[in-house]
Design brief:
The structure holds 2 protein chains of 2 kinds.
Chain A: H1 3-32, H2 41-51, H3 64-73, H4 81-94, H5 101-115, H6 127-148, H7 153-181, H8 191-203, H9 207-214, H10 220-229, H11 237-255, H12 261-275, H13 279-284, H14 287-310, H15 314-319
Helix pairs in contact in A: 1-4, 1-6, 1-7, 1-8, 4-5, 5-6, 7-10, 7-11, 7-14, 11-12, 12-14
Chain B: H1 38-46, H2 49-66, E1 69-72, E2 79-82, E3 85-92, H3 94-118, H4 123-126, H5 132-136, E4 158-165, E5 171-177, H6 184-197, H7 199-205, H8 213-223, E6 234-237, H9 246-256, E7 259-261, E8 266-269, E9 272-277, E10 280-283, E11 286-289, H10 293-296, H11 312-317, E12 322-324, H12 335-338, H13 341-349, E13 356-357, E14 361-362, H14 366-374, E15 379-383, E16 392-394, H15 400-412, E17 417-421, E18 427-432, E19 435-440, E20 446-449, E21 453-455, E22 461-464, E23 478-485
Parallel strand pairs in B: 3-23, 5-13, 6-7, 6-11, 11-12
Antiparallel strand pairs in B: 1-2, 4-5, 4-20, 8-9, 9-10, 14-17, 15-16, 15-17, 18-19, 20-21, 22-23
Helix pairs in contact in B: 3-13
The chains are: A mainly alpha, B alpha+beta.
Chain lengths: 320, 488
């Protein structure tokens, strides 16, 4: 596969995952604001901005309504949902002949719906209609991708993009919440704090899945355990990293090249640090450092994917 | 002009059909349907209008979902449009086609010899058969090609030659497109649509197949691989997603099973071309390039090009990669050189041209120029280096102001223009809102030249869909229809 094609597929997938995550952050926090909470309005939205990586061109200006609109509709702000979807579609357009026509049509339809002037969108002018519709659209695209595209190298790069983006987003979110959570790890949350923790779980679509495992008793160590280490839940860090690792191995095998040592080591270490650890060990040491380490390894994995498959130097490639 | 309205036109679908001095593909002068068109006409006259409309809608939808579109420049940023398409096929007899084929093979063979000569000894220039200054003043002349040996001495691998049929029924050559001709994907997809829409009619007619075009193109490209590259890796180089013919590039690459690459996918090392893949660098042997000369190598040609590959020309010079078409083929389709093609055929082949040229006035000749500037309202003026219907004046349909502009432009730069009589070229029946009406058509067959010259029977018939319009280019409101060459 051409490196340029891999690049486009990877970013198409990352941008869609990013759009979905941003939508969920906005949606959940708008609902949380309806109840009185231990978190101030300012603290809440600053945390949202931090969870999105403090994107360029957006600042907290004491107007959450404005902030949400900017992060949703403003195509000039690169972090907005609209901008992410435009980027995803543009990446898909560059490799239109490599993806299935069903994929292209789904993404193209969503794009045309998103960019039309709000007056023409009819019923969907309201945020609480718009945001869930974006999530549905992204989910539909993922389903179409999995059922219509060969699960070859192209598909593996889509997987890489999706799970690397997801792993970073989840790690980032936990990092922001951990100082607060760690006050009283084993005591079940009540009242306002309970709302906040439900919010954290909902940002990862994890509330229902959590309850199935631990019942509705929310304790910090269980939340941390679930979002970090659960091997079956698709938004947990461990699950995301397992999928990322599978995609990396599959690409390495199909390229017919010798395993890339550095990539194998980094991604293997990342996987091991989530697979062979107890939540009590993490809490006993420094959870901040632990999460920081995971984020660091995610970024290194991204760089190594680029260095070996996409933006390698000609000299390095000739030496292979 | 006499306008015939024969009694056969009593059918309401033919109520707006007119015959005059113009050659009509479907009817002879006396208003009788030509025998090879009889069954087509009967079929279409007997289809209920709502059935016809349904067929048309289903074809449009099929084009839309397959993304068979082109981008129009100057209409916002890369607006996508469906290529307008007419369901009534254009029918050509086997005998007519044999004549065309013979003429095209002769013409392409001679033009290729001309290119080889001009870029090597230059005998034809020394013998004064083609004026030196016309060749050397051509913008498409590439000094860099002097003395360079290309595989099998083939410069023009793919040609799209535009033919017109005059009122006496004779096919003539309007222009040769020897650089990066496009449109072949419309020919191929039209055929697929017609077969699906009118299977019975198609079977009854005994139409010669064209579907093997992509396979012929692939074997043609393979036959031009650099020496010693036995299993050559072939790619199609596209300017990218914003190019008006991007659909065609993806279509051809997919049909041939070759990689579709952009300039940024290729790197040159030690004068060898590689493409960047996830499995490392992979050598490239043959490039079917759909990027113009000017933009293909920023080191050799336009330095502001971001579509090209730095160093590609040197790799080509070194004989490590084949480009199809070669660089500098544009001198042979320059509209001023065009006037000399009959002489070129006689010079190299010692034969009379099978297909004639359209009479052409050279503006570099003072006498001809004077005639032209005095008669602009009767003539068609074209800029020599333009294509696609841009940069052109159609005298009888122009305003006094436009004529004045062209007159000034011609006087300022005579080498840049030629003029031709306004041609009365043939019309074929087309489906319109009013039933069936005649519209002007041309014919662009695609000629492949590798180990030998090969042409799939037929080509792209382009239609000037607006009543009375003479311009068939898709960028100027033209459409297409399927071309059926019959087994006689």
């Amino acid at each position: 596969m051409l490196s340029r094609v891999a690049d486009s597929l990877y970013w198409m997938s990352r941008y869609l995952e990013r759009a979905e995550h941003t939508v969920r952050m906005l949606d959940v926090n708008m609902v949380l604001m309806l109840d009185k909470s231990s978190t101030s309005t300012e603290g809440r939205w600053k945390r949202v901005l931090a969870a999105l990586g403090n994107p360029e061109g957006v600042r907290w200006e004491n107007d959450y309504d404005q902030l949400v609109h900017t992060l949703t509709f403003d195509a000039d702000v690169p972090a907005s949902v609209t901008a992410c979807l435009i980027e995803a579609r543009e990446n898909a357009r560059q490799v239109r002949d490599e993806i299935s026509s069903e994929q292209w049509q789904q993404l193209n339809r969503m794009y045309h719906w998103v960019i039309q002037p709000r007056s023409e969108r009819g019923l969907n002018t309201r945020l609480n209609d718009f945001l869930p519709a974006v999530i549905d659209g992204v989910h539909l695209f993922q389903g179409v991708t999995d059922t219509t595209m060969s699960h070859g190298e192209e598909w593996q790069f889509i997987q890489m993009g999706r799970y690397l983006e997801r792993a970073e987003a989840t790690a980032n979110l936990l990092d922001l919440y951990q100082p607060e959570i760690l006050h009283t790890p084993e005591v079940a949350a009540e009242g306002r704090q309970y709302q906040e923790w439900v919010g954290l779980l909902r940002c990862c679509t994890a509330f229902e899945a959590y309850c199935k495992v631990y019942t509705a008793d929310l304790t910090a160590d269980q939340i941390l355990e679930f979002l970090l280490l659960n091997p079956q839940f698709p938004h947990s860090l461990r699950y995301s990293v397992d999928c990322l690792r599978q995609a990396l191995v599959a690409v390495q095998q199909s390229s017919g090249r010798a395993p890339v040592d550095e990539l194998t080591k980094i991604s293997g270490r990342l996987q091991a640090s989530l697979s062979f650890v107890e939540v009590s060990d993490i809490l006993a040491q420094d959870p901040g450092a632990y999460l920081g380490n995971i984020l660091q390894q995610c970024r290194q994995t991204h760089e190594l994917i680029y260095r070996f498959y996409i933006q390698y130097s000609v000299e390095a490639a000739l030496a292979m | 002009m006499p306008i015939a309205r024969p009694s056969t036109f009593a059918n309401p679908l033919l109520k707006d059909y007119v015959l005059d001095n113009t050659y009509d593909e479907m009817f002879s002068d006396d208003g009788l349907v030509r025998p090879h068109y009889a069954q087509v006409l009967e079929t279409f006259l007997n289809l209920p209008p709502e059935e016809l409309a349904r067929q048309k809608r289903s074809v449009d939808l099929s084009f839309m979902t397959q993304g068979i579109t082109f981008n129009v420049y100057g209409h916002g940023e890369g607006e996508e449009k469906i290529f307008p398409y007419d369901l009534l096929p254009r029918v050509i007899t086997g005998a007519e086609w044999q004549h065309i084929e013979k003429g095209l093979i002769q013409r392409i063979t001679a033009l290729n010899l001309f290119l080889h000569d001009v870029y090597n000894e230059g005998k034809i220039l020394n013998d004064g058969k083609v004026p030196r200054e016309i060749v050397y003043s051509c913008r498409q002349f590439r000094r860099e090609m002097r003395g360079l040996q290309v595989p099998r001495n083939v410069y023009i691998t793919v040609t799209g030659t535009d033919l017109l049929r005059l009122s006496n029924g004779e096919f003539v050559v309007l222009e040769d497109n020897l650089r990066v001709p496009s449109g072949v994907s419309y020919m191929l997809t039209s055929r697929r649509v017609m077969k699906r829409t009118f299977p019975q009619l198609f079977r009854d007619y005994g139409v010669q197949p064209i579907e093997h075009y992509t396979q012929l193109l692939l074997s043609t490209l393979r036959s031009l691989a650099p020496e010693g590259r036995h299993d050559p890796s072939i790619v199609l180089l596209t300017p990218g997603v914003y190019n008006s013919a991007y659909f065609e590039h993806t279509y051809l690459a997919r049909q041939m099973g070759i990689e579709l690459v952009e300039g940024r996918d290729l790197v040159i090392h030690d004068n060898v071309v590689y493409m960047r893949t996830t499995a490392g660098l992979k050598r490239v042997d043959v490039i079917y390039r759909r990027v113009d000369d000017d933009f293909i190598d920023p080191l050799a040609f336009r330095s502001d090009s971001i579509l090209g590959v730095a160093g590609l020309f040197n790799a080509y010079r070194a004989g490590n990669v084949t480009l199809a078409n070669a660089f500098g083929t544009g001198i042979a389709d320059d509209k001023a050189v065009y006037a000399y093609v009959p002489a070129i055929i006689r010079y190299y082949l010692g034969e009379e041209p099978v297909l004639n040229n359209v009479e052409t006035y050279l503006m570099t000749d003072p006498k001809q120029r004077q005639y032209v500037t005095g008669n602009l309202d009767k003539l068609v003026v074209k800029a020599v280096g333009e294509s696609g219907g841009y940069g052109m004046l159609i005298g009888p349909q122009s305003s006094a102001e436009q004529r004045e502009d062209f007159k000034r432009a011609i006087e300022a730069n005579p080498r840049n223009y030629i003029a031709q009589p306004t041609l009365d070229f043939s019309r074929a029946g087309c489906l319109t809102e009013n039933g069936i009406e005649p519209r002007h058509v041309d014919l662009r067959p695609y000629i492949l030249y590798g180990d030998k010259v090969r042409i799939v029977p037929g080509g792209l018939t382009r239609v000037a869909l607006r009543r009375g319009s003479l311009v068939v280019n898709s960028s100027q409101g033209g459409g297409s229809k399927d071309t059926w060459v019959l087994n006689d």
